[in-house]
Each structure stands twice: as structure tokens, then as C-alpha cells.
Amino acid sequence: MTNGGYNIIRCPACSTCHGRQGLSASCPHCGQRLGEHGILVKAVSSAEALRIEVALQNTPEELREALRSRMVSNESLSSFNDEVPSRTMGNWVQQSVNEDGLITVRSVQLTLNKNHSDLDANDVLEQAEVQGMLVRMGEGRWMLLE
Ligand SMILES: [Zn+2]
């Protein structure tokens, strides 16, 4: 199940999906070790498609169509990568490490404010997590992967 694109992987322990380039070592939601045990749900070719598909997979089936049309028509979503190059966003995430060596929604929000960005800290974190920059340590806390 290795390929060059982005994979949507379902954790067999908590049934939650997450996106990853290549294989996942562990589930970002419950910490379950995955390796070969992760279930490859779907492979997509862009981070944008990955973001949408992961959200869809984690949505009850009867709500998916509504969510899909909302996400696909959401302009701020499609312009996300154009407005802020991912390199800039990456720098912001790196600047957001707090005194505990962790990144939180609050620390990212402070960095965004400092840079006069009106991006949502949650969106930035989600994007950084999808790109494999961050690993989730717990509710609302992430660690930077160098
Ligand atoms: Zn899990």
C-alpha cells in the first residue's frame, strides 16, 4: 500500500481516519501502533483532496453529501494554499512552539495575530498535521517533527 501520493488510513482500534503521505506508524487520534495494520481507505494525489476526504470519512455516511458540497464550494478552502505558501505556513508553525516545546491552537493563533494573518489556527494546524509536520500529542497539543 505504499505510493507517492497521500493516503487516507483508518485506524482499526478507534475507526477514525487520518491522512498521511506513505504509511502511518501510529494513529494520531488514539496512539494505536499501525504500520501494516492501518487500513488504506483511499489514496489521493493532493493535500487538498486529502483534507476533504479525511473529513468526509470521519463524518457519518448520511451527512457526507452535504459536507462534500459545502467543502468543495468553500472558497477559503481552495484559496488556502494560494494565499499563504506552505513554506510560510511552516515557518509560522515552527515559530509557535511554546515554552513546553509543544504547539497549541493558542500558540498558533498568537503567531497568526503577530503576522496579521486572518487564517484560522485550527486550519493551519490541520494542514500542518496532514503534511506530516506535526504529530498530535493529545487534545489540542502537537509536537513539531523536525
Ligand atoms: Zn486510532
Structure in words:
With 146 residues, the chain is α+β, with helices and mostly antiparallel strands. The chain folds into two domains: 1-78, no CATH class; 80-146, Winged helix-like DNA-binding domain superfamily/Winged helix DNA-binding domain (Arc Repressor Mutant, subunit A, Orthogonal Bundle). It has helices at residues 47-57, 61-73, 75-78, 80-83, 86-95, 105-114, 121-130, and strands at residues 6-10, 17-21, 39-44, 103-104, 134-138, 141-144. The strands form two sheets. The protein has a three-stranded antiparallel β-sheet, with helices on one face. The chain has a three-stranded antiparallel β-sheet with strand order 4-6-5. The longest helix is centred in the middle third of the chain and has 13 residues, at 61-73. The radius of gyration is 15 Å and the shape is globular. Residues 76-81 have low confidence and may be disordered. Residues 11, 13-14, 16, 27, 29-30, 32 line the site of zinc ion.
Q: What radius of gyration results from the CA coordinates?
A: 15 Å
SSE series: EEEHHHHHEHHEE
Helix vs. strand class: alpha+beta
Low-confidence residue ranges: 76-81
SSE layout and pairing:
Blueprint lengths: L5 E5 L6 E5 L17 E6 L2 H11 L3 H13 L1 H4 L1 H4 L2 H10 L7 E2 H10 L6 H10 L3 E5 L2 E4 L2
Antiparallel strand pairs: 1-2, 1-3, 4-6, 5-6
Bound molecules: zinc ion.
The site of zinc ion has 8 residues, from loops.
List keywords for this structure.
18% strand; globular; binds zinc ion; three-stranded antiparallel beta sheet; 2 domains; Arc Repressor Mutant, subunit A; alpha+beta
